[in-house]
Amino acid sequence: MAPESEADRAVGLGPAKAEARAEVFSALALTELELQAHSDEARKTKYQGAVVVEGIINLDGRVTNIKVVKGVGMGLDENAIAAVKTWRCKPAVGPSGQPVRTLVPIEVTFRLY
Fold it and tell me: Could you give the CA distance from residue 63 to residue 83 in angstroms, rounded to a whole number?
């Protein structure tokens, strides 16, 4: 049996379920998406970049416990968090066929075209 990790504890997986974590981790499937907005500061300087956040996708598809893993500054980190908070995702499905809470990394890319 795999040891319980901090990530497993964060999403409520006990030691018995830790082994299944790799199986239930699925690609982020968005059911509703609000496009992220550039901050005024980043737009004025024509700054682009990708913010990496991680969060827990709950059983209802809402993303919670969002934190920045790799930020780019200029107000884009805050805008990435605000955008992800509005997203609704399809929860991962566990071995029993039931939705499970899952800790996922999410990359939010800001581009000016």
Answer: 10
